Amino acid sequence: MSVETRLRAHLRDTETVIIQTVRPDGSPWRTPIWAVDADGGSYIRSSHGPASAWYSRATGPGGLAVIIDDEEVPVTLTPVTDEHLQDDVDLAYRTKYEAQPQFVGNLVSPTARPTTVRLDPVRPSSR
Fold first, then answer.
1. CB atoms inside a 10 Å sphere around CB 48
2. Is residue 126 scored above 70 in pLDDT?
3. Quick one: 3-116 is in which CATH superfamily?
4. Would you tell me which of 5, 41, 52, 55 could form a disulfide with 48, CB atoms 3.0–4.6 Å apart?
5. Is pLDDT at 125 greater than 90 in this prediction?
6. What is the pLDDT of residue 101?
7. Which long-range contacts (CB under 8 A, 24 or more apart) does 33-37 make?
8. Beta strands 117-121 and 64-68: pairing type?
């Protein structure tokens, strides 16, 4: 199974995924978050907006990795600005996490939407 297929399946099928970012002191930090699959891609966003610690670290120089079976899978983050795709990501969050509506509201809020990023595995040549 390719890294891309494995990453997408993990993000789609796992209730709470673990991401790893790098703190300012260089140490790794793992954070549980929610991820969804929409329109052929995998997406995450910060329910607390761009000021969230994990989001700030992920979009900084240290980048982000998804932890799959104790393995770090480095990913690229592509900001999503298309409103129709944002709507699809909202729907994916509402559908996947429908049993937890008290939290989904934060993930589909005007604060969270601008932090939507598409995750793709880092290609060996782009490291």
1. 16
2. no
3. Electron Transport, Fmn-binding Protein; Chain A (2.30.110.10)
4. 52
5. no
6. 87
7. 34/93, 34/96, 34/97, 34/107, 35/11, 35/119, 36/11, 36/12, 36/89, 36/92, 36/93, 36/96, 37/8, 37/11, 37/12, 37/92
8. unpaired
